[in-house]
Amino acid sequence: MESFMDNFRERSEVEREWLQELFVFVRDNLFPVLGPTTGSVSPEELSLAMTRRVERAVGSSSARSLPLSYRLISVAELVTWQRTPCCSNLTWSTAQHREWVREAEQALPNHKALPRANLLLIGCLSDGCDPERSCDGAWRVRDATGTVHCELLSPSPLWLGLPVLFPCWNYIPQPALGKDQEVEERGYLELVGCPLPLTSDPEMTFNPAGVNLKRAVGVREAAGLIQHRVRGLRVKVYGEVSGVYPLLNIAGKSLFCLRLREGRHTLPLLVTEPCCLWWQQCVCVGGSVCVSGLRVCALQGWSGNRVLCATSQSSLTLLPDTLIQDLSDPPTLDKHTPDPDPVGLDPPLSDCSSTGGPLPERRGAGPDPDPVGLDPPLSDCSSTGGPLPERRGAGPDPDPVGLDPPLSDCSSTGGPLPERRGAGPDPDPVGLDPPLSDCSSTGGPLPERRGAGPDPDPVGLDPPLSDCSSTGGPLPERRGAGPDPVGLDPPLSDCSSTGGPLPERRGAGPDPDPVGLDPPLSDCSSTGGPLPERRGAGPDPDPSPILRPKLSKAISYKGVLTSVLSAAAGLYVIDGKVGLCLAYQPLQRRGLRPGAEIELHDVHFLYRPSPHFHPCMLCVCLHSSLRVTSFSRLGSEVDRPSDAPLLWLLLERNLGVSQYLWLCHCCRALRDRLVPRWVKEECVYVVARRLFECVVTSEKGGGRRDIYREMLQEPHHCPLTEYSVSSPVCEYVSVSDCVCVMEKECWSSLSLSSLLPACGSSLTQAELNPSIAWSVGLSLGQDSQPRPLLLVGVLELPGTHTLRLRDQTGAVTCVAVETGDDDSGGQRAASNTAWIGCLVCVQRFTMVMERFLQSEFPSYRHLDQDSYITHRHCRVYIQLCLNDLQILSPSAAMASLLLRTTQGGERVERREGEVGEREEMSETEREREERREKGGRREKGGEEREERRDDVSERKKRSREEERIEEKKEEREGGAKRARQNHTENETCSQPGGGALLPGDRPCISVVMCVEGKEGVAWRNEGIACEGEEAGLSLCFSVRADLIGQIQRWGRDPRNCPLQERETDGQTRTVELLFVRSSVRWFPLIQAGSFYRLIAPNTQDHSVLIGCRVAGRSGVVLHTNPSLLVRSDWRIHTLTHPLLTTPYSQIVSQKVMSVAEVLDCSSGVDLVSFHGVISQRITLQRGTTTHTPAQRGTTTHTPAQRDVEAGLSVRLTVCVEPRGRSLQVYLDLSLTPYPPGLVPGNTVQFTSFQRRLSRVGGVYCRSVPVSCLTIMALGKTDTQSCDSPPPMILLGVWALAGAEQCILGRVRGHVVCVLYLQLQWTCSLCGSIYAQERCTRSQPPCNSTSAVFQAEAKAAVEDGSGEAHIWFSCPVISGLLGLAMPQWEGLQRSLRVRGHLRVYTRGRSLVCDVDADDPLLQYLSCVCSSSTVCRPLTLICTLHTRSHTPAARREDSAQLKRFTRGDREFVTRMPPPLQLTCTHILEERERD
């Protein structure tokens, strides 16, 4: 140090201290790593050179200034203590740094520039070939403390091994994945400027005159030479680089390819030598190189094609672009003798005899050092073209997986390659031959799948793929998860860049897009440019979800990286408009940060491959080249690679680009909508994988991926060459977005005129507004446009009376049913509480949009004026079947149920099989003894065999008994242990409601119950104060149930474990369970006839589950059951059929009547329970209902919305068949919460409804406070416009059978006469007669100015079998009278003056109550008696309400009638004629 410091005696004390630190640092950190290329340099000389270099970098040498503010830092200190990105530039001044920061932040306003750090970094550049590690081709900065990976823009081979000073660099830390991660992998350097050498090496300056290309050949000559038989050929080739392909790691060995070009001739070069892998970062597209020591090899996976391969003697020289153009000397060949095997391969270079002799054995070969079958990677070409001989002395096939070898010898004549030795099953199930490993910086292979051996997840609840770290550890949590600042779902915009247009692929042949499926691409300037619109500019003409294959185009592009969507998934954005996907090059890339400038060659351009990303996408394959031309100046947040497992699924399933982009979109959406409330960050990939498997069931990925053909073959073909648009054909939306879609569609699809019946033009205000007060729109989720909708959420029971599907964006009400256990496949009400807490995928569902209107339309002519609408409100929900749901993550109860239902049968079958095997073994042994013995012993042997069988049967019984005892013991200790383990493997958070996990140490008690019936949810004054609330009106319902057996104590929650014998021991007692306030949430899953386990947690007191009786006076007999108040923290678990034991294995069926039985039963029945299909729903006139509790804040709707739903009175028409007998049901919803699901088509069970008789004898039902509605089955929404016509029926048959025959039918008969006809103009406001353009009502006077025309007629029709009186309404009267539309309108105008006309039959003529000489009356009389009216007709009629009962019930109303025929008189009892209502008249051309 003294000799070094003597050179700086005149410096200040501060500078001398800084120089002393420099000397110590150089001596301890830099000097020990110097190689032989630096010669004999002492630490003093090296420190002095370092000082001079720093002074020249900072300023002039005369100033002799030292950067005292800078501190020397070692590599180990940098990667250990520097946790944030930083930059260092020794040559900057403060003003220059400020200007640099301003320019960087103006380029991307949402980012901040890298902070400056005054640090000095020195070291040696190495190619990664250290003795401690395998060569991976990565450049590193090395000193005595360690190494760190570095990225360079234009590295030179002359820099390797020399001590250098790095004047300008950026350091980007990487997240530490675990303790096993090496120090250098926790960050990397971006070397912005050229390193400054500390020693004066004359080779550091390139001298073009010293380049020796006299013995080199061009690409054209080399391409011809590799086709000729030349023994020991070594080629030295120069040319322009046209492609640099990624560095791959296959079975633990690395390789990369590059392609040289000369004119139209190209030549591929393959580099597999570890000492040459660093070339990959030195060469770039467009540069000129000279490579020596190349030999000819053939690829096993690329039959009939040869490449030049680098050897251990190969060298790389970078050439100026103008040097190659000046070469004119003829090329010569460089022949060498086979060289030894310095790196231990078998052998990399070996001669082949002219006769095709075998390859020589490895000298001193011991155990096979190449167990993966890449031995030998390189070999010379045989001159005869025969197949390669097997290796001498080879024992068992060292390549059991068939990867032996990727590179092999071939004949010069292109002989076929031998087949793979020992080929068995396909060793490459994911379609990569050979498989692609994870190209991390260490070059390690992909980890194997966890849990090899028996499938630990028989029910498919565990992810089949392991985590994607190189160590096989768990997936790391993503740091800084939150909303995507750059937007994963950008708007569809044009894909412009920063410069000129893009070029077409160089050397392209015929247009690969002859049908114009891809936008045309123009030529490209060096700066890149805007991508043009598709031909036929405008929006995408076919946004339909049909899969349309399209062809991509290979282009070159240059732009600025503006955002990183997911670095682990390989998704970026260039120039703010162009998407970039690097997933098909599974490499660990560095330097791709926002603000970096990149250059792409042979990249695939895809137009609209996915609606979730930019319309213009660039995707790289193994044939593409990517190079960073300028590092980013901006700091970026360092995220954990949480999307890394997506690349595993891409390789395993050979996903197309559309499928992969959809999967990436789902991962991001799942994080936003489910993390962290229901799904942990590290489990998002597991859920996304299961979601993908649920959706992509029929679609398949691409074919097998041949990496050699993909990189080297021309014309190029890869998985990106052809892609499909909009695949998968579904749209994953959030729950809130689904609700918004339904609300928007609810009002956009509304047409008020379509809600009116056929006679809507004749309805008055009192009839018109109730007709449009309620309407419903149904839409299948899979029929949504432009793509079917897909929902993912958690099923939960909130504090209300409905089931909901929820994610973090919102919730939607669900009307759920399930498929019955019988073989019929029919639906029933949902009752399984194990669904609560399950994360499910919903694909098949029906969107229901109920519309409520309060309006004051005077007539149908004003329906287009929205000013008459006073209030509007919509209620949206979905209808689904639980059996159609796909479980992505089960609740604890569902996991236990699935585990027992899938493994229970297997366990019993396995144990019975073991017993059967023991039986067979015993019988076999006995048969052998019989063959050895004589006849006298055979009888004794038969007895022994019978005894053996008895013993086996006894052992079988004991085995089953022990199994039952063990199962009971496990259940007493808590049960469901495997379910908890399964739930832990899914790693979902605890769910609220029935699926929530209770702490295992908490005790509880339970009782099994069977529900006999339940009442409806209503507002009642229970007089019970719960949870600190005041007594009063509360939402509640009650259940009548039979408690089975005694109350049981448990050490932990048993959930839905199988029913045990001790739970059924004891008497059965009936109780009334009261569900009040928050306990009402169990209402949608409590069904009559089902079994449940009621659990009271945190207690061992039996009295909690014992109901209390009502106190009564002496002498009074009470017929009430004990009541039990269900608390809010109690749990209810359904015991389904597999969990029940005899005699409780069958669901108790409740006696429910049909519609026909309700109509025909005796009038003494008061409360009835029946089921039927809703065929029609009408909202009745709203009365003066006061505000009910439902209006006071129990729902989330606004006050105006609650007013629309409050106090509704609804009339439902219920039938069994669409044309069967119907029943009117009246509902009063003033004291009940609004029930969803009451839409036409749904099957509903009506419980405890009052049966009433109308004044005319008709049967109807109405609701009472204890009535209950249950949706039993969902209707079909795929209604067809042309249904089958109604059946043809005779009037006589119809009159005898009544409604038992049918309700709707076709009648073909003759009109005898018109019995009654009334025409009038009616005031639309009050219903009075409207004459002379005013209303005729006087008390009180009506000032209405609108009127509607109404008409009604009745005619006698007979068909030979009977007679009927058929009523005709206004829409069909014109057809009955045979009047054309102008005549019918003229008749209406002629009636405006008098306003009313009524004619009826008297004898054989029509008469009127007014002047008989009225011309209008005479006209109608003439028309009604003419043959135009009295003619054969085919009518579609419905049975009138008074004729619903059969003729036997109407005998009392029959009358005696006298008939005279000649001289005889007949007296008979004639029933009243059949009363029908005509809905449609079929003319002759419409018949059948």
What report would you give on this structure?
The chain contains 23 helices and 59 strands. It is an alpha+beta fold and 1488 residues long. Strands 26, 27, 28, 29, 30, 31, 32, 33, 34 and 35 form a ten-stranded mixed sheet that branches. Strands 1, 2, 3, 4, 5, 6, 7, 8 and 9 form a nine-stranded mixed sheet that branches. A hairpin with a 2-residue loop joins strand 12 (253-262) and strand 13 (265-271). Helix 2 packs across helix 3, helix 9 (657-674) crosses helix 10 (684-695) and helix 14 (892-932) packs antiparallel against helix 15 (935-972). The radius of gyration is 44 Å and the shape is elongated. The chain starts with a helix and ends in a 6-residue tail after the last strand. Mean pLDDT is 75; it is low at 202-206, 328-546, 905-927, 933-946, 967-1000 and 1184-1197.
In short, what is this structure?
The chain is α+β, with helices and mostly antiparallel strands. 19% of the residues lie in helices and 28% in strands.
- Principal-axis shape equals elongated
What is the tally of helical segments? Answer: 23
Fraction of residues in β-strands = 25-35%
Unreliable spans are 202-206, 328-546, 905-927, 933-946, 967-1000, 1184-1197
Give the arrangement of secondary structure elements.
Layout: H1 2-5, H2 13-30, H3 43-58, E1 71-72, H4 75-81, E2 86-89, H5 94-107, E3 119-126, E4 140-143, E5 146-152, E6 163-166, E7 168-173, E8 187-191, E9 196-197, H6 219-225, E10 233-244, E11 248-250, E12 253-262, E13 265-271, H7 279-282, E14 288-299, E15 302-319, E16 334-335, E17 407-408, E18 549-551, E19 553-566, E20 571-574, E21 578-581, E22 597-607, E23 616-619, E24 625-630, H8 645-653, H9 657-674, H10 684-695, H11 707-712, E25 722-724, E26 731-732, H12 735-748, H13 765-772, E27 774-780, E28 789-796, E29 803-807, E30 810-819, E31 827-829, E32 839-842, E33 846-855, E34 869-881, E35 886-889, H14 892-932, H15 935-972, H16 977-986, E36 1004-1014, E37 1018-1021, E38 1033-1050, H17 1061-1064, E39 1069-1076, E40 1091-1097, E41 1123-1126, E42 1131-1134, H18 1155-1160, E43 1167-1179, H19 1199-1205, E44 1209-1215, E45 1222-1228, E46 1243-1253, E47 1259-1262, E48 1268-1273, H20 1291-1297, E49 1304-1323, E50 1330-1331, E51 1334-1335, E52 1347-1358, E53 1363-1369, H21 1370-1377, H22 1381-1390, E54 1396-1402, E55 1405-1408, H23 1415-1424, E56 1432-1439, E57 1455-1461, ...
Parallel strand pairs: 1-3, 5-8, 13-15, 21-23, 26-28, 30-34, 39-41, 45-47, 53-59
Antiparallel strand pairs: 2-7, 3-4, 3-6, 4-5, 6-9, 7-8, 10-12, 10-14, 10-16, 11-12, 12-13, 14-15, 14-17, 18-25, 19-20, 19-22, 20-21, 22-23, 22-24, 27-33, 28-29, 28-32, 29-30, 30-31, 32-35, 33-34, 36-38, 36-40, 37-38, 38-39, 40-42, 43-44, 43-46, 44-45, 46-47, 46-48, 49-52, 49-54, 49-56, 50-51, ...
